[in-house]
Amino acid sequence: MIKVLVWCENRQNKTDEAVKAVYPNGMHNTIADFLNLDPEISAKAVTLDDPECGLSEEALKDTDVLLWWGHIAHHEVPDEIAKRVQHHVWRGMGLIPLHSAHFSKPFKLLMGTSCDLSVPGFFKEQLWCTLPGHPIAKGIPNPIQIEVEEGYNEVFDIPQPDELVFIGAFEGCRVFRAGCAYHRGRGKVFYFQPGHETFPIYHNATIQQILTNAVKWAKA
Amino acid sequence: MIKVLVWCENRQNKTDEAVKAVYPNGMHNTIADFLNLDPEISAKAVTLDDPECGLSEEALKDTDVLLWWGHIAHHEVPDEIAKRVQHHVWRGMGLIPLHSAHFSKPFKLLMGTSCDLSVPGFFKEQLWCTLPGHPIAKGIPNPIQIEVEEGYNEVFDIPQPDELVFIGAFEGCRVFRAGCAYHRGRGKVFYFQPGHETFPIYHNATIQQILTNAVKWAKA
Amino acid sequence: MIKVLVWCENRQNKTDEAVKAVYPNGMHNTIADFLNLDPEISAKAVTLDDPECGLSEEALKDTDVLLWWGHIAHHEVPDEIAKRVQHHVWRGMGLIPLHSAHFSKPFKLLMGTSCDLSVPGFFKEQLWCTLPGHPIAKGIPNPIQIEVEEGYNEVFDIPQPDELVFIGAFEGCRVFRAGCAYHRGRGKVFYFQPGHETFPIYHNATIQQILTNAVKWAKA
Amino acid sequence: MIKVLVWCENRQNKTDEAVKAVYPNGMHNTIADFLNLDPEISAKAVTLDDPECGLSEEALKDTDVLLWWGHIAHHEVPDEIAKRVQHHVWRGMGLIPLHSAHFSKPFKLLMGTSCDLSVPGFFKEQLWCTLPGHPIAKGIPNPIQIEVEEGYNEVFDIPQPDELVFIGAFEGCRVFRAGCAYHRGRGKVFYFQPGHETFPIYHNATIQQILTNAVKWAKA
Question: Chain C residues with CB inside 8 Å of B182's CB?
């Protein structure tokens, strides 16, 4: 059984009606719920409001793969806890930063770059798999259609991925490295771009399949 | 002085009025001419019609970097000459396959994959640099605007590039790894997508700068 | 169930007493036998002497992962069959070339380089894992002790591996990239250096574990 | 002219007779001196004892490539200054951490991993170039003989290099990724292992050539 922790800052979930409309149960619970449909996965959700942000030593020791969604409260995660996450990745924990978690402290610590990008607006996205033999792409149509997403745009200031699994193409000839896999220490990291809080991305069965695949890849 | 050979199959150049209108002097001569504007480069052009396709042992021994444009006559290059080019790359010669040369024999031999892609039509392209510190991107605006190009689309069946320098974004949410750098043996390879025969791509000063940069990178 | 084919040229197995002493049942059967101990794997052995070298379209269509041991008879494999193997890798089959199969036709076709190396003699080897979180390294001690092996030495003329999993260190300050993982098309390739025919390498439980891991990784 | 800054903690240089015997003028001055023999390079040396460690905003703005040697005083470099170096790499400055600078703050920040390794003793080293077409290897014999060096040993906990240029082989079947090239932001990083303070490594003409090459590569 793969032990998964789904971390969410849980801020806009509580205050923004547009977000609540899409994720009435909270984005983190939505993600944990679909992961739990897989018989090999046991997922639970924690948030910034939990003691030690839900990321105590004990919690991380008991975690194989951590998913991370944050946006407006990155700075509320104490540096010490961000480093704790980084160190657990070094020892073998998987980390899957989602969407605006490109600016989360653990991801930035693990990449060593600014992780900056540009955000030109909201667009239709086609997500292309550029490495169709990768375990994370297993059973996934190519391309994936996303009716509307927040456009993320290059230059995405990251180290070159060990495996570039997806590239997102947005209306207006915009492009973004959307699925980026890394080894860091004994752990694996998979950044995945889709997942803006006001769109039903995590209700999309294909996106769910990608994240389920990513959890298994990160544990392997 | 960097000794450059510009190879072109020179077929559509001779028979297709649309191509002749864009490149009255031949595409190969156009490319050699702008490369020769750089004081460090000495370029000459050869074609499939030359003895040994212009690619004799002597010619290749005297070449630092070979640019290659081919489209409808890949099969007319003898296997033995394609292998000769491959072996010169192994010994240190640079190779810059252009546009439809993704299907040229030397590139396919050096990649080991099918080098297949899809060709959905003609579109506006924006070419994004994803590695702005790379020598090939020096002094290049980001993105580069190309009014109309033949769209090439993923999946581009190549080995993961050692350095992915450019990604092309085409209208209609299409995407292509457009500037791909590799080490092969002691030589370097840079595949570059823009350059359809009926559009004035090689008259574009930015494209010219990229290819001049690529020649210097391949020689370094 | 992972369907595995173990291919061996089976030449020295038949004529060289030193090889027969180590692998009385044939190296290919030894490898297939230990792979079959894993409940997820179903392996069978074929040789150069079988019709179509044991590598008919039907056989390859029914193969998830192909292991390949060859040494003195690379040239006896018809080009057409080598290309057939290459094309099956493109479509998703895993390939695990062993030891002197660095010079096998399918590996050379898939790498695009000369795959040359130097062979300075016979030495003690320590095999170091440089990517301990990789699935192929799961449960493997670091380093692995090999009492005596044929020394392979850099420069190993291969494309940079997507994942460099092992480096072999030989007496006399010699070094070799010994475990090299690649994506090629939809398939995966893992070259693994240990396995000289006169030493009991494939009887070593740790080497067996690495190859069992590699089969699962190549199938994933 | 390439503007180079050679940074050294300058601690053992002052207190350890064995170090003073090898580098009477200070290791940093030795390095700056041989770099200055190249007509394209203008190098100066600074140390931890200089105001702002010699790494003021003004100094870094005026630096193309920074070499860094530190060992026992990594912790004396203020976090703020380490981050300043990191940010200058993001904007395009080259960084060449030497030997025990694998544990320097700027390198660790840029890698995102622990950068740990093991140190088994002092040994003869042979340094093998695994990418002989790389600009840093230009004109360098293969292998390079180093009579005695401090052995560094895998596992070296770094991200997979974009380009693995050298592997060090030490007596006793020990091995270390000794020359590791990375892109980070717009800047380049080249970690280079040889350079223990009590051995005349930086007086070795081949090592000098490698570092001169590395400076030019980092600036390109």
Answer: 159
ipTM: 0.97
**If interface means Cβ-Cβ distance under 8 Å, which residues of chain C face chain B?**
86, 90, 109-114, 157, 159-160, 162, 182-185
Chain A residues with CB within 8 Å of chain C CB: 92, 131-135, 162-163, 183, 185-188, 217, 220
Partners of B167 on chain A (C-beta within 8 Å) are 154, 167, 175, 177
From residue C74, alpha-carbon distances to B75, C81, D53, D186 in Å are 27, 12, 60, 45
User: Identity (one letter) of the amino acid at B29?
Assistant: N
Task: Specify the pTM.
Answer: 0.98
The residues near A165 (Cβ < 8 Å, ≥ 6 apart) are: A129, A130, A131, A134, A136, A137, A179, A180, A181, A190
**Structure confidence at residue D217 (pLDDT):** 98
pLDDT, tens only, B45-69:
999 999 999 999 999 999 999 999 9
Domains in chain A (CATH in brackets) are 2-112+179-219 (3.40.50.880)
Size of interface A-B (CB pairs under 8 A): 66
Q: How many angstroms separate the CA of residue C173 from the nearest CA in chain D?
A: 5
Q: What is the percent of chain B with per-residue pLDDT over 90, rounded to a whole number?
A: 99
Q: Is the pLDDT of residue B32 over 90?
A: yes
Distance CA A76, CA A105 (A): 10
Whether the Cβ atoms of residue C45 and residue C30 lie closer than 8 Å to each other: no
Q: For the CA atoms of A14, A16, A17, A22, what is the dihedral angle to 10 degrees?
A: -80
Neighbours of chain B (3+ CB pairs under 8 A): A, C, D
**What was the pLDDT predicted at A13?**
86
* A114 contacts D184? CB cut-off 8 A: no
Per-residue pLDDT at C13 exceeds 90: no
Q: For the residues D38-50, what does the mean pLDDT come to?
A: 98
The Cα-based distances of D125 to C147, D69, D138, D178 in angstroms read: 21, 20, 20, 11
Query: Taking the CA of residue C98 as centre, how many other CA atoms within 13 Å lie in the half-sphere pointing to its CB?
Result: 24
d(CA D34, CA B22): 52
Give chain A's mean pLDDT.
97
Give the nearest chain B residue to A142 (CA atoms): B155
Report the b/e string of A113-139 with b at 16+ CB within 10 A.
bbbebeeeeebbbbbbbbbbbbbbbee
What integer is the mean pLDDT of D185-189? 98
What is the per-residue pLDDT across A90-124, written as a single tens digit (0 to 9) for each?
A: 999 999 999 999 999 999 999 999 999 999 999 99
In a mutational test of the D interface, the residue from A86, A113, A186, A191 whose CB has the highest number of chain D CBs within 10 Å is: A113
C-chain residues within 8 Å CB-CB of B109? Answer: 112
Query: Among partner residues A92, A133, A187, which is closest to C188 by beta-carbon distance?
Result: A133
Task: Provide the residue count of chain C.
Answer: 220
Looking at residues D176-202, what average pLDDT do you find? Answer: 98
Give the count of Cβ contacts less than 8 A between chain B and C: 39
The pLDDT, as a whole number, for residue B13 is 86
